[in-house]
Design brief:
The protein is an alpha/beta fold and 655 residues long. It is built from 20 helices and 30 strands. Bound molecules: 5'-O-[(S)-butoxy(hydroxy)phosphoryl]adenosine. The site of 5'-O-[(S)-butoxy(hydroxy)phosphoryl]adenosine has 20 residues, from helix 11, strand 20, strand 24 and strand 25.
């Protein structure tokens, strides 16, 4: 790759008034109290396994381990294998026994305006009741339980109750269809589904239990019971004998429960994620190593201070971010956190900022797509709020373009807060690449460096390490504690997907493109299937998008590589204009082509730019590039069923 787009800001702060800093070093006051200092890298470097043993030592183990890592059965790792612990005990009981039972664990903010504060004492009682009742139902360690719930406290209680009993949970995002639910339930042979009668969506009660009935209709399934939390009070279909109300059962169960220890490698959860083929992959995570790295990263990357911070991760528990950074990491670290049931624009676009003010949120972790949405709505909205409690911002899920990064820091963070851009995956279980907020001088848009204890390389197709400045494939060349232990029921696919590509080296292939810039900062460029090849030049969709979004008239952009007879691939862009954009039509298109040429290189000029009202997004907020490629290549639209709003996209296709 010839251009140095992502390095465009290395000219520094000197000069004109509108020059922006190239890097953002941590400030003295932050460094002084930071959980992690530079020494953390040295300790990990000196003895990686001893370093992880030290991290695992932060947890409560009923039986200590004798071997940190057993890699003899690679690529299936065993971490702390002969140790025993109870994950829920570590997330709840431990804090109560240490005298923090009255501390608030969860400030729950419900969608129609109701809220609940849940202390660690409350959480222990609820998790214990649920564990007692699940035992009464005959569930035994190793059984699978599907959890299909909105962001209500009982969802977290259910996950912890499963963990407490050694039941393997499979959380299915409550926005998924009955078909998707059934597929996941069948794949894992779940014996129980926990759900709610309905869920609130923009002030309206929408059925959810009905979707479970639909999923379970037809062929007999492995499901014996459906446990239903009453949330919206809507009518639900009922199957006597199979269906059970939470308030008739769990609520009446004994609030005392003695947790048993399980092997460190006991399966904790399965979480389905999409791969390159149609069938979702059930990513399997186990207990000791997973909890170790979830807690370690939450402590060091977010600089979390128990009893002081008010932490808020805006993810849904249906995704891995919710597992690791709402449930396991924060609770292991005795966090006080906000859990929000609703959407950012319900009842209006002030919702997140109202919540930050209401609870005095100090750490806020969200996705770039939301940051760009806030940008689109305009800074007047956050500016109307006192956000001064915020002291750290996090980003996850996709590359964050430098413009969004700077806006996030300036407008939300008051030009004060460090930003941690955290790269990881469902498969990695926890954060792998990120700045340390008290150590790293961050560059807007860069994930910066592998965390202490983690090793990443950027290589070419043949596995040769690349020079700084060159784009290549991101690989993880050393096992890590929270790594996936397989794909449920399909270990061949596990090997093929992640390990066959660099089988000789024994590296994990992440599926992402990345580069170290000439200063050695690591940039994740996006999935390799989203990296385009134009006339033999490799160009990241993220880089072009960043250039487009850099134009003041553009709120959001998505770029795909479309087959082109001359150049191999050609770049096709879809952009949403800002509310008060100055230009439109051909004028804007011409400006954007010029901007991309200037920002990256003339080879990165889009062949076409479509100005559109919305982008096709999945319910998890990911842009469906596949559909954009269909439009760009003039094909009939593929499956639009996973989109939030298929009609919006069909309008784009027509336009
Ligand atoms: C893919 C994993 C990690 C939890 C949420 C997504 C992309 C994730 C970043 C980041 C650039 C990122 C990668 C990765 N991704 N974080 N900070 N910078 N890209 O989990 O659904 O398993 O997706 O998300 O492409 O491979 P996921």
């Amino acid at each position: 790759m010839t251009s140095a787009t992502t390095d465009h800001d290395t000219t520094g702060q000197a000069g004109s008034a509108d020059a922006v800093p190239a890097t953002y070093p941590p400030e003295g006051a932050f460094i002084a109290t930071a959980n992690a200092g530079a020494a953390l890298y040295d300790r990990a470097e000196a003895d990686r396994l001893e370093f992880w043993a030290e991290q695992a030592g932060q947890l409560h183990w009923d039986q200590p381990w004798t071997q940190v890592l057993d890699w003899s059965d690679a690529p299936v790792a065993k971490w702390f294998a002969d140790g025993k612990l109870n994950v829920a005990y570590n997330c709840v009981d431990r804090h109560v026994l240490d005298g923090h039972g009255d501390q608030i664990a969860i400030h729950w903010e419900g969608e129609p305006g109701d809220s609940r504060d849940i202390t660690y004492n409350d959480l222990l009682a609820e998790v214990s009741r649920a564990a007692n009742y699940l035992t009464e139902l005959g569930l035994e360690a190793g059984d699978r339980v599907a959890i299909y719930m909105p962001m209500v406290p009982e969802a977290i209680v259910s996950m912890l109750a499963c963990a407490r009993l050694g039941l393997t949970h499979s959380v299915v995002f409550a926005g998924f269809s009955p078909t998707a639910l059934r597929q996941r339930v069948d794949d894992a042979s779940a014996r129980l589904i926990i759900t709610t009668d309905g869920q609130w969506r923009r002030g309206m009660a929408a059925p959810l239990k009905a979707a479970v009935d639909e999923a379970l209709g037809g062929e007999p399934s492995s499901v014996e019971h459906v446990l239903v939390v009453r949330r919206t009070n809507i009518d639900v279909p009922w199957t006597d004998g199979r269906d059970l109300w939470w308030h008739d059962t769990v609520t009446n169960a004994d609030a005392d429960h003695q947790a048993q220890a399980f092997d460190a490698e006991h399966p904790l959860f399965i979480l389905y994620t999409s791969g390159t083929t149609g069938k979702p992959k059930g990513i399997l995570h186990t207990s000791g190593g997973y909890l170790t790295q979830a807690a370690y990263t939450h402590h060091n990357v977010f600089d979390h201070k128990a009893g002081q911070d008010v932490y808020w991760c805006t993810a849904d528990i249906g995704w891995v971010t919710g597992h690791s950074y709402i449930v396991y990491g924060p609770l292991a670290n005795r966090a006080t956190q906000v859990v929000y049931e609703g959407t950012p624009n319900s009842p209006d676009e002030h919702r997140h900022f109202d919540i930050i003010e209401k609870y005095g949120v100090t750490i806020y972790y969200t996705a770039p797509t939301l940051v760009r949405t806030f940008m689109k709505w305009g800074r007047e909205i956050p500016d109307a709020h006192d956000l001064s409690t915020l002291r750290l911002l996090g980003s996850v899920g996709e590359p964050i373009n430098p413009e969004a990064w700077r806006w996030y820091r300036d407008v939300i963070g008051g030009n004060r807060t460090p930003i941690v851009d955290t790269w990881w995956q469902t498969e990695t279980g926890a954060i792998m690449i990120s700045p340390l907020p008290g150590v790293t001088a961050t560059k807007p848009g860069a994930a910066m460096a592998a965390l202490p204890g983690i090793s990443a390389k950027i290589v070419d197709d043949a596995g040769a390490e690349l020079d700084h400045g060159a784009s290549g494939l991101l690989v993880l060349d050393q096992p890590w504690p929270s790594m996936l232990r397989g794909i449920w029921g399909d270990m061949d696919r596990f090997r093929e997907t992640y390990w066959d590509r660099f089988a000789n080296d024994g590296w994990y292939f992440a599926g992402d493109g990345a580069k170290f810039d000439t200063d050695g900062a690591l940039w994740v460029l996006g999935r390799v299937d989203d990296v385009m090849n134009v006339s033999g030049h490799r160009i990241s969709t993220a880089e072009v998008e960043s250039a487009l979004v850099g134009h003041t008239d553009v709120a959001e952009a998505a770029v795909v590589g479309a087959t082109d007879a001359t150049t191999g691939q050609a770049i096709v862009a879809f952009v949403i204009r800002t509310a008060n954009a100055a230009h439109s039509g051909d004028t804007l298109t011409a400006e954007l082509i010029a901007a991309v040429s200037q920002e990256i290189s003339p080879i990165a000029r889009p062949r076409e730019i479509h100005i559109v009202p919305e982008l096709p997004k999945t319910r998890s907020g990911k842009i469906m590039r596949r559909l954009l490629r269909d439009v760009a290549e003039g094909r009939e639209l593929g499956d639009t069923s996973t989109l939030v709003d298929p009609q919006v996209f069909e309008a784009i296709a027509r336009g």
